[in-house]
Amino acid sequence: MKKVITHNGRFHTDETFGVAVLRLALDEPFEVIRTRDDKVITTGDIVLDIGGVYDPGQGRFDHHQKGGAGEHANGIPYSSFGLVWKKYGVQLCGTKEAANIVKKRLVYPIDATDNGVDTFVRGTRDDLYPYLMHSITMSFRPAWNEEGRTPDAAFLELVDIAVKILSREIVHAKAYGEAKKKVEEAYERSEDKRIIVLDGPYPWEEVLSGYSEPLFMVGPKSQSSNWNVKTVRSEVHSFKSRKDLPAAWAGKRGEELAQITGVPDAIFCHNGRFIAVAGSKEGALRLAWLALEHEE
Fold first, then answer.
1. Secondary structure of the chain in HEC code, one letter for each residue
2. How many Cβ atoms from other residues are within 10 Å of residue 71's Cβ?
3. Nearest in space to 18 (alpha carbons), one of 62, 72, 74, 69
């Protein structure tokens, strides 16, 4: 059986996801050994996050040596996860485009955190900070006063979860390419590009945020016969919309919303005024046009 070796002691997100990649990419089971013994390290078929060598041809994926192991195109230094993904990402995703989506969503943040690269600035609250993959990793480590939980067992437990997360990210990355084309085609077909109508529950936010005109998206609600009206955000990762739904709709539902809007099958409008729901495509389109014409 092959041996995959990483360091012992406190585990980190990068080698956890590096081992998860190997679980998905290798055609045979392998033993995971956590050690800092140089003699043992030399016996590894694959060594990551330890050993001081980056040589993918020899199965060596460390980034702690002097000068590191290079950087991504955006300047973020590689961690062991990024190095392993560089070798196996396209194999797992099937296309470079899908592999790059996973890299953007998952690899960059983990590599940045492991190398001490700040990716967040202080937000609008001093008492709140994003809960990151690094936060999950810390929660799996044994607490200082916890008995019966070993770092080795906790590490393998977290690897199982990392495999599931990575597998789901790959599924979504593969699906995104087709969805992106459908959203782009819907944009091109639209006569008034302030309202974009989609024929499926595609991931659309990043695509439409890349165009200057769209204000609202109208599309079918996933696993439902209802239709959504959603606002296009000023920036895809922001909660600020280019144009909010009318304030009078906020929190209204059913008959009350139908009376206010004049749309008989209007169902609901969120208090945040970024989504409204109707029972039909025609109803959702009517809500979108009303919102477009409304001035606060």
1. CEEEEECCCCCCHHHHHHHHHHHHHCCCCEEEEECCCHHHHCCCCEEECCCCCEEHHHCEECCCCCCECEECCCCCECCHHHHHHHHHHHHHHCCHHHHHHHHHHHHHHHHHHHCCCCCCCCCCCCCCCCCCHHHHHHHHCCCCCCCCCCHHHHHHHHHHHHHHHHHHHHHHHHHHHHHHHHHHHHHHHCCCCCEEECCCCCCCHHHHHCCCCCCEEEEECCCCCCEEEEECECCCCCCCECCCCCHHHCCCEHHHHHHHHCCCCEEEECCCCCEEEECCHHHHHHHHHHHHHCCC
2. 13
3. 62
What is the token pair recorded at 164?
A: 């599931």
236 contact partners, CB below 8 Å, separation of at least 6: 205, 206, 209
Sequence length of the chain is 296
- Collect all residues with Cβ–Cβ distance below 8 Å to 83 and sequence separation of at least 6: 18, 48, 54, 56, 61, 62, 63, 69
Distance CA 132, CA 137 (A): 9
Rounded distance, CA 117 to CA 140, Å?
A: 23
**Amino acid of residue 4:** V
Q: 216 in the Ramachandran plot: left (φ > 0), alpha (ψ -120 to 50) or beta?
A: beta
Q: Which residues contact 290 (CB under 8 A, 6 or more apart)?
A: 246, 261, 262, 263
Task: Report the C-alpha gap between 246 and 261 in whole angstroms.
Answer: 10
The predicted-structure confidence for 46-94, as pLDDT tens digits, reads as follows 999 999 999 999 999 999 999 999 999 999 999 999 999 999 999 999 9
Q: Identify residue 180 by its one-letter amino acid code.
A: K
What is the tens place of the pLDDT at every residue in 4-19?
A: 999 999 999 999 999 9
Q: Answer whether 82's CB lies under 8 Å from 107's CB.
A: yes
